[in-house]
Each structure stands twice: as C-alpha cells, then as structure tokens.
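Instructor's aside before we start: the two examples that follow are unrelated to each other. I chose them only because their records fit on one page, so don't look for a connection. First example below.
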Amino acid sequence: MPRHAAYRCTLEAPTRWRGRVIGDELVAGGAGLPQARRALRERLLARSGGWEPGGLVEHVEHDLGDGLWLREALDDRSLDRDHTSGVVLEALGDHRLRAELAGLPEDSAGGVVVVSCAPGDRVDWLVQQHDGREALVVCAAVTNHRLWWNALATAESDAVPTAGGLAELDLAEPGATVDEWMAAVDCGRLVTRAPTASPTG
C-alpha cells in the first residue's frame, strides 16, 4: 500500500514549504516545493532504509482561507483535477458552504482538507489519505459549475447528515470508485469509515 505525502506553502513561515507523510509524524521543509519534496523523501528513505512497498504518492495543498485546504495529487490526472478544483473554488463562493466545511473536524496538520478528485479515483486511495481523525472532504465535478461532495470521517457529526458507513454503502469493496460513491450518496453527506453503530434499546 502506498504512503501519501502532502505539501503546503505558508508564506509567513521561515521555511515556506512544509511536507508531511499523512498519518505519520515525519515532516520536512524547504524554500520551494522541489526542495521540500527532496527533503521529505530523504528523511523517509533514511528512516525506512529504502522505499516501502507501494511507494509514495505526493499531493500539494493550497490555502483556500477559513482553515480550508485544497489537495491535488501530483499525478498524470492534473487536467481532470484542475477542472474539479475550479468547480470547488466557484462553489466556495457560497459562504454557507464554506462555513459548513470549515466546521468539520481538522486534520493533524490543522485545517479541513478538500480533495480534488478525478473520474475513476478509487475509494481506498481516498481512505489512505485520511489521517484517522479528520473529516476529509471528497469532491468531484458533476458539470462545469456543479460540485458533488461528501465528507469521510471516523465518526458521525452534527455538522452534516450522515449517510452511513463505507461498508454499508458497498464502497469498502476493492475497486470501488468515487463515481460509484457519487451514485450511492447524495451531495453534502458524511460517510464514516466504519459501519454506523446500530441503535440500542
């Protein structure tokens, strides 16, 4: 299984770019993105003695304000991800949506992460990006101006209605994609990583 790393630029920080391995304490920084990527890879190699099976998937996170960060994978789907990111930016012009997302649980680096998806992205690939405590907002462009989103969390929240768990929705199966997630769950719902607890009494 691959590890995931995310890089953020903070203009007011002495070291502008900071990278971290998601779900890990390993961090490294640099004056630019290439330097931060190189430093994080070197630290990961030094600690592990070589690349772990599955390799490293890298992402860049852009500051959207109000504690929101837009995550884009550094892969060969950049045009599709850019399209989704453009629809995200347009949708976040709605202050009600912005406030709703900003009220979700933050990740370990601070802030709420919004992932820009491309068609065919796998659900397990998204779960691997969850650090175990956050509400990871999964976004996909339905049209040029219409956004679908769900929040992936470890537990239910009062912030948005809960649709159920990944397993309950048949999204924990190997090969399940974000397209299937969109077909199974309406926009603006929270989906838990584990099945929703059955009511007792």
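Example two begins here.
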Amino acid sequence: MKVREGRGFTYDELKGAGIKRKEAQGVGIAIDHRRENKTEETYQANVARLKLYKSKLVVFPRNPTSKRAKKGDASKDELKKAQQVSVANLFPVTQPFVRAKARKITEAERNAVVSRVVRTARLDEKLWGRREKRAKDKAEGKKKEKKDKDGEMDE
C-alpha cells in the first residue's frame, strides 16, 4: 500500500521516541489521539522519523540575553549554525520500492476464473461465523449422542 502522511503521531510513537506530549506540541509535532498503531513496521518507521527530527531540532531560548540556558535549549554555537527549514520537509515520508520480477504465467493461473475465486473468498468471509457455530453445535450434538448411547448400554 502507498504510505501517506497522516494528521499526527500517536502517543505511543512519541513515547517510543522519548518525547513528552507537551514538549511535542511546543516544538511543532502534530499529535493525533484518534490514530492507532496497527503494524509494528509503521510504528518503528514513525519512531525513527521522530528521532531524526529530534536530532536535527534546534530549540532557541525564549530569552536569548539570559546567561543561564534552560534544559533543552541550544548552545550559542548551535544557534549560529542553525538554518530555517521549510515545514513541508519536516517529516518526509519515503515510499518503499519493491521491484517484482517478471515470470511466466502458470497453467493453473491461466485456467483460473478470478471472479469465482473472489466471490467464494467473500462468501467464506461473510459466512465464517455461522459455519463455525454450526460445526461447534454439530460436534456437541455428536458428544451428546455418544453419551446417550453409552448410558443406555450401561443399564
């Protein structure tokens, strides 16, 4: 699937990168409380993006004339080297490129009726729960019949 930019990072991703919620809001990181991490790969990729951003981040002090720098503020040397970065390139999303090799079509693939395969797959998905329940009830019914037969033979 295509990797797209979202509306923000999850709290778990921020925690994985070692960034606090208030700190994230203060340095321009968007937070989306509705998002969930569905796969480990996207979680790791977003944590890596956050760590990269944090490593490049230069926090200017609120009061530059103050002699004591607060925790997290950049040093004077870092402030001189700092450059403005456009907002569009803060969290670049890279697309993984997987090249598929060409191969010959097999006889089974050539003879397969794809619409039938798709229809049966959809039906199997739709009726999965009902079929599972029927199989369970049938198994319980056989157990009861067996118990009844064993009970009659003992008497």
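The chain has six helices and no strands.
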